[in-house]
Amino acid sequence: MLLRQGARLTAALTAISLALAPVQVSAQTARKPAAHASTPALSRAASPEAVGFDSARLAKLDTYMQGVVAEGRVAGMTTLLARHGKVVSFKTYGKKSLAAGTPMTEDTIFRVYSMTKPITGVAMMILFEEGKWRLDDPVTRYIPEFKNLQVMTGVDEEGNGTPVLVPMKRPPTMREIMSHTAGFGYGLQDKHPVDKLFRENRALGAGTLQDMINATAKIPLVYQPGESWRYSISVDIQGYLVEKLSGKPLAQFMDERIFKPLKMTDTAFYVPAAKKDRFSAVYALNRETRKIEEADVIFGNPLPTYLIPPTAPSGGGGLVGTTMDYARFAQMIANKGELDGVRILSPASVELMGTNMIPRNVLVNSNGTSGLRFNEAVGFGLDFMVVNEPRVAGTLEGKGSMSWGGAAGTWFWVDPTNDVVFVGMIQRLGGTGGDDLGQMSRTLTYQALVHPEK
What is the pTM of this model? Predict the structure, then answer.
């Protein structure tokens, strides 16, 4: 039950990302046989049975996903499942464009929205390993514009809703920036006064990342740093920090330090003209016809085209890429920081990212609309959600699984206990109108893993 709530919260929260702007699988688990001791490189499996799956049972996953497309809930989909670096299943379903009638392909390019966040987190950890920052440094050491932030404690009902502000007790730390406990809002809904201020100040719609920082500095925190958890602009702030700490534009740093080394050849902050025909359309539900149609608006704002480089690349939700590209990133996390002989992070840094950073009994609020408690079952690390006790959480996946999702319904997870990587891609805003695909794909994947010892 807890994980189902967590998955729904993830879908709701990640569906917020980029509204105003343009797996940890260990390769050397204790019970893994010696044949898997070297780091996997995402080659094709000889058969599902070779890595512990039952083909007949795994077919249930395929049947379910085909049904989601056949029902018209999504136009098209891809799913990729790997174990021990062997691709067990890579399926495509439906169309990438209903209007054009073009089929979904393995090399279709998707808006990954908030699945950008773990990649930005890895960029931050590269700089962490270079000694550029420390986890409990105050963020004001690197962003002095935040020195005078205030905290909103309520509104003055007699003063026409004027915010009641108090000074922050201390600046947010870098740890809190990377775990959504710093106190920032997001501005992707307008139910909370702080989110309204984000919209009014166009923090995410700023012309440059420096403009974003300047706008954010004028907006109060929702709570004192470290006292709660709230999905926030903090990963866009991390994108700015990457630029400031590295001395390079965010897109250049990611390309040089992550995308090129991992051979993520189609991942970027925009789609070049030569690849435009591979770019999937994005859909939303027409509430009158109850059918999906191409979207041109996201949360009341024009949908970015993604066909030109943005002036303010969003570390929180601006990337596009293919299913295989993201699977290569996830496999790097699975291999504790390495893929194809190229090391991006140390094993210790990947472990740090997968360690719960949420204090016990902290209530998670999503712009006042929903919430759950992070606890011993489900937590949040550094830019990843983490499952600490999967059976308590009501899931079949392994302990320590790291995951997140995106606004158009994309999802992934990395399972260190079972050495499993899964990436699912759709392009539908606002949810699929049915069962949560992330939760269903977990259940249908693990019911087919009948020989985990292989």
Answer: 0.91
Q: Which residues pair with 284 in a beta bridge?
A: 293
| Beta strand 86-97 pairing with 43-44 | parallel
Which of these three, 199, 225, 246, is where a domain ends? Answer: 246
User: What is d(CA 192, CA 272) in angstroms, rounded to the nearest whole number?
Assistant: 37
Residue 101 has pLDDT above 80, yes or no: yes
Contacts of 204 (CB under 8 A, 6+ apart): 18, 19, 20, 21, 186, 187, 188, 198, 212, 233, 236, 314
pLDDT tens digits, one per residue of 168-227: 999 999 999 999 999 999 977 777 899 889 888 889 888 999 999 999 999 999 999 999
Compute the distance between CA of residue 8 and CA of residue 397 in angstroms, rounded to an integer.
17
- Are 114 and 257 in a shared domain? yes
The structure tokens 């606890």 sit at: 375
Rounded distance between C-alpha atoms, residue 10 and residue 105, angstroms: 26
The structure tokens listed for 51 are 């890595």
How many CB atoms lie under 10 A from the CB of residue 291?
12
The residue whose two tokens read 């066909």 is 307
**d(Cα 415, Cα 23) in Å, to the nearest integer?**
6
- Measured CA to CA, the distance from residue 255 to residue 119 in angstroms comes to 11
Structural domain tally of the chain? 2
Q: Which amino acid type is present at position 406? A: G
Flag whether pLDDT at 5 surpasses 70.
no
User: Which of 246, 263, 298 is the last residue before a domain boundary?
Assistant: 246
- Of 206, 408, 393, which Cα lies nearest the Cα of 313? 206
